[in-house]
């Protein structure tokens, strides 16, 4: 035991003294600034942040740019590029340098000098020449410097079709076979690996890139995402590759991870609208989409949403031959004011797909959607919140993971549990079983008295649950405690032939009951 403690102390001591153990992977991007923040330095910063890597920046040019095109370029004097390089490289232990827009041969030279003075573990060269809008960002004058001096130092170079053609003297690339030959010819210029990006290849269903390591060719495919929001994909891909290399990944794996990241981000943000031009930016942090389409306002939980709380059950919907989406649509049309997906038997992937589809339905109707039990699904689809019970993940942990704006509900049968839910940062509690139910096995009932006791002790709004339907909802609401805001029901809506009719009936009963109570 004593020996164990000594070993632990020794470990702790060495951890505090050995700074390499605390080192953060670090990419330095040497590129141009894009005022629209879709590409360039701004894309690089976001990509590295998304991949969990520190990113420092040396700015080679400031561009006035938006989703329409490039309105102006102001090249940073090469002496000042040199000064930025020295500031970062002399101090900050950079792992990987990634280059983007290098607008003059002078700047290429300055970079070469700096890399000689401060060698780094890897160099990723994105040979940016023309923007997605077709504007020239680096003219032919830098081609010789790139070809003869920078590429031989590169661990990987990532030209698109036009850039590969420019590097090779202008020969157009039109087929995958052309891409392979181009990769080989560019490899002859000295970089250790070449990735020719075929995003612009005509008549191809997938986005095909060719990776060549000097020995083998790899055809890397990802789905082509139909979206206008592709501005900055090249910068992002190169930065992600740099980020993965900085973490210690082998080159081919880094490329695969980066491609997958870009594909996911494009898919995630395919419908967002930023700017009026033909080429929009995308969302590196995968957070904008749902907010952009969100009729339900984040961060404003309204207790009256608990009025008619529809809780789904995959078994019941299956039995009645309907999808979860159809069930949710009908419940909302009938007057449900909040929806919880409680899919105990669903496969994770099916659950996530259904959750995304239901979220779109709920969002377009301004109805919050919560997920029962599964924080992974709630996070992955960016649901409006979660409902957890006493044996699920504690509400305080859920709060930490979901953040301050999401809705969290906790099942409580006692005043102590209600008090705890409040301390843990929940927004509401579900109290039950008020009556016995076939939906949840071995569920002790609390009755109307138990419900009233919990409501009186709770600082949070309450929704009653368990065996509630059209015949007894009125009695539940009639207990007359102001923080009892509604009823949560499963079988009364979903173990019935017509969800729409049953929801309408329950809505009418609740409206009647609450008008009497008021
Ligand atoms: C609104 C509402 N109240 C209570 C529950 C029950 O949650 P829990 O106790 O975690 O049991 P399961 O639903 O997970 O079986 C609920 N789902 N919703
Ligand atoms: C999911 C659930 N939780 C309960 C609790 O007491 O916390 S009772 C219950 C089942 C509710 O289904 P039905 O409306 O079909 O009775
Ligand atoms: Mg649960």
Q: What features would you describe in this structure?
A:
This protein has helices spanning 2-17, 40-50, 78-89, 105-117, 143-150, 161-167, 176-187, 233-247, 251-268, 288-292, 314-319, 324-334, 348-365, 375-381, 395-402, 415-423, 447-457, 473-477, 491-494, 499-517; strands at residues 26-34, 54-65, 70-75, 96-99, 122-125, 156-157, 194-197, 206-212, 217-223, 308-311, 338-341, 369-372, 385-388, 407-412, 428-432, 462-465, 484-489. The protein folds into 2 domains: 24-292, Ribokinase (UDP-N-acetylmuramoyl-L-alanine:D-glutamate ligase), CATH 3.40.1190.20; 295-517, Alpha-Beta Barrel (TIM Barrel). A hairpin with a 4-residue loop joins strand 8 and strand 9. The protein contains 20 helices and 17 strands. With 518 residues, it is of the alpha/beta class. Bound molecules: the ligand Cc1ncc(COP(=O)(O)OP(=O)(O)O)c(N)n1, the ligand Cc1nc(C(=O)O)sc1CCOP(=O)(O)O and magnesium ion. InterPro entries: Aldolase_TIM, HMP/HMP-P_kinase_dom, PM/HMP-P_kinase-1, Ribokinase-like, ThiamineP_synth_sf, ThiamineP_synth_TenI, TMP_synthase. One of its GO terms (molecular function) is metal ion binding. Pfam families: Phos_pyr_kin, TMP-TENI.
Question: Care to give the gist of this entry?
Answer:
Helix content is about 40%, strand content about 20%. With about 525 residues, the protein is of the alpha/beta class.
